Amino acid sequence: KATVFVVLGIIIVLSVILTNIMSNIATGTMMFPIVIALANGMGVNPTTFVIAVVIACQCAFATPVGTPCVTQTMVGGYKFMDYVKYYYYSRSSLSNPALLWDLMLMCSMF
Q: The pTM is what?
């Protein structure tokens, strides 16, 4: 069971990194077949892995290239690092405890 948590964590981190480099839809489309095959190969429910990818793909605010709406705000004179700072502080203080709790509940579906 610990291996499943490690793999799930790697998938989440990889999805968050990729969704800040390319669009969240492209990241999800690329990751879904990979995580479904990985979950089936591990003998666990693929729904948990897919939900983790969906949640991770919504974290596309660390860079201005994640979503078109955030890219349009660069006209306001923001620097690239302003987005990274905002993302770090907002996600680390508010979302991470809730996200970890949700993932723990999802992992109980195994």
A: 0.67
- Gap between the Cα atoms of 21 and 48, Å rounded: 24
* Phi-psi domain of 105 (left: phi exceeds 0; alpha: psi -120 through 50; beta: other): alpha
What is the token pair recorded at 14? Answer: 């990889």
Cα–Cα dist 16/20, whole Å: 7
Of 54, 49, 47, the closest CA to residue 28 belongs to 54
> pLDDT tens across 60-96, in order?
766 777 667 777 777 778 787 777 777 666 665 555 5
CB–CB of 35/9 below 8 Å?
no
Rounded CA-CA distance 3/30 in Å is 23
